[in-house]
From TrEMBL:
Residues 24-84 form the Chromo domain. SUPFAM superfamilies: Chromo domain-like, ClpP/crotonase. PROSITE patterns: CHROMO_1 (PS00598), CHROMO_2 (PS50013). This is Chromodomain Y-linked 1. One of its GO terms (cellular component) is nucleus. Keywords: Nucleus. It comes from Callorhinchus milii (Ghost shark). GO terms for biological process: spermatogenesis.
């Protein structure tokens, strides 16, 4: 079995068999239990993931992670000396989280888990006061709209509240399932085991963190971002693989892999590097359960309030440059869509060459809901790919397509079952890498060059329209109304 798990090269273990994990993938051990057969299992926190993605693993799967088990046992003995922890604190935090995250974009419904929340659980009380004070925005006298807009902007700029889509749970991973390459992309979702974890209060959790000795603490901070070339980027992870470059969206400056200028510039830098090196192709994917939620509107609104015309021009130029990088890229771009792709995250897919989707993924471009016009050349490519009627339904009405529907309409090349998504992707990537690089580039040129001029012209027009909308008071009002609607649903 390959020693490349989650797409990581492991230096801590030389051989793997069955489901033995590399300790370089583990952040820490969270809990311990006995299963029905009396065997010991540990709750593992994986590097680059949060508590929603913890999984129970048998002890024999963690033979290379003894240091983490020993550290957990040491901490557990310290906890027993301090006295039992209260489960109530954990449940109260979970209840607060559930109440805050019930609201979401209307697209996160029925076929996909729905939630939208505020950045931190302990902000729930403050957020309720904030929402109450702004509950009347955009209702009643239209003459008050200007003052209401500035009131809402002030709240956004002076508070820590952030509107975002909670990481969508795609599917469950049974305990003992070996995580593989695209599990790091969130293709296998999360497990439903949170209720079995012993509650720990925030204060005691801090005390436990402070007890850790410094060398071990440094070891815990080691992550995929610090391996090979990945350390150079904040919002993406770049892996130089055998014959191809793997770019993973893993944003720190935005929620749910949404795109702001920092993220887009890092992606451009990685693509430019891949264009110049010996990579035959680029694989684009994402860490977590969401592929990409499009533009980061909170980021844009905060900057539009400073100097609307200047900032709108700057943002439009950033998007124009970002999209042109995809249009002008000469090597094949393969996309593995592990979860929801929204807005610009969906519109750039036709600019790529092959799109493989997880069965649980879905696609939506609700531009009119956001109060903006199409981007990413979707006004040209969507009608060409799926026909005018279906394209208008997506661009105007914000229709959400399942992975199978997207495949039937030509937006997606193939759809794979979540449990085998990683294997299917890697098999096909390895087949493509075996091809001659010149053949791949020339084949793409034959397919793409005829439409390149049209794409660049469309991108220019779309960005000009976006600049006009963002620089107008009506465009600002539309975005604020959308955000206010999301807040009112909390």
């Amino acid at each position: 079995m390959s020693n490349n798990i989650y797409g990581l090269k492991c230096n801590d273990s030389h051989r793997f068999s069955g489901q033995i994990y590399c300790c370089g993938l583990v952040e820490k051990i969270v809990a311990k239990r006995k299963n029905k057969k009396g065997r010991t299992e540990y709750l593992v926190r994986w590097k680059g993931y949060d508590s929603d993605d913890d999984t129970w693993e048998p002890e024999h799967h963690l033979v290379n992670c003894e240091e983490y088990i020993l550290e957990f046992n040491r901490q557990h003995s310290d906890k027993q000396k301090d006295g039992p922890f209260s489960r109530a604190s954990k449940h109260s935090l979970n209840n607060a989280r559930k109440q805050i995250s019930r609201s979401t974009n209307s697209s996160l419904s029925k076929s996909a888990p729905k939630s939208s929340g505020v950045g931190k659980d302990n902000d729930s009380k403050n957020s309720s006061q904030f929402l109450a004070s702004e509950a009347s925005l955009y209702h009643g006298d239209q003459n008050c709209l200007h003052d209401s807009r500035h009131s809402l902007i002030k709240k956004f700029n002076n508070s820590s509240h952030r509107v975002f889509l909670k990481k969508t749970k795609i599917c469950s991973v049974p305990a003992g399932t070996s995580p593989t390459f695209l599990d790091a992309l969130g293709a296998n979702g999360t497990t439903n085991i949170q209720s079995s974890i012993t509650g720990v209060s925030a204060n005691k959790r801090r005390l436990i963190e402070e007890r850790r000795d410094q060398p071990f603490d440094k070891r815990l901070r080691f992550s995929v971002r610090q391996t090979e070339s990945a350390y150079r980027y904040r919002d993406i992870v770049v892996r130089k693989q055998d014959g191809f470059t793997h770019i993973l969206l893993s944003t720190k400056s935005s929620e749910n892999n949404s795109l702001n200028p920092e993220v887009m510039k890092e992606m451009q830098s990685a693509l430019n590097t891949a264009a110049a090196d010996d990579s035959k192709l680029v694989l684009l994917s994402a860490v977590g359960s969401v592929f990409c939620c499009g533009l980061d509107f909170i980021y844009f609104i905060r900057r539009l309030t400073d100097d609307r015309k200047r900032e709108s021009t700057k943002m439009a130029d950033t998007i124009r440059s970002f999209v042109n990088t995809f249009i002008q890229f000469k090597k094949p771009i393969i996309v593995a869509v592990n979860g929801p792709a929204i807005g610009l995250g969906a519109s750039i897919l036709p600019l790529c060459d092959v799109v493989w989707a997880n069965e649980k993924a879905w696609f939506q471009t609700p531009y009119t809901t956001f109060g903006q016009t199409p981007d990413g050349c979707s006004s040209l490519m969507f009608p060409r790919i799926m026909g005018l009627a279906s394209a208008n339904e997506m661009l105007f009405s914000g229709r959400k397509l399942t992975a199978q529907e997207a495949c039937a309409k030509g937006l997606v090349s193939q759809v794979f079952w979540p449990g085998t998504f990683s294997q299917e992707v890697m098999v096909r990537i390895k087949e493509l890498v075996m091809c001659n690089s010149l053949v791949l580039e020339e084949s793409k040129a034959l397919v793409r060059n005829a439409m390149r001029g049209d794409l660049e012209q469309t991108n220019e027009k779309e960005c000009d329209v976006l600049r006009k909308i963002w620089s107008s008071s009506q465009g600002m009002d539309s975005m604020l109304k959308y955000l206010q609607k999301k807040i009112d649903e909390f």
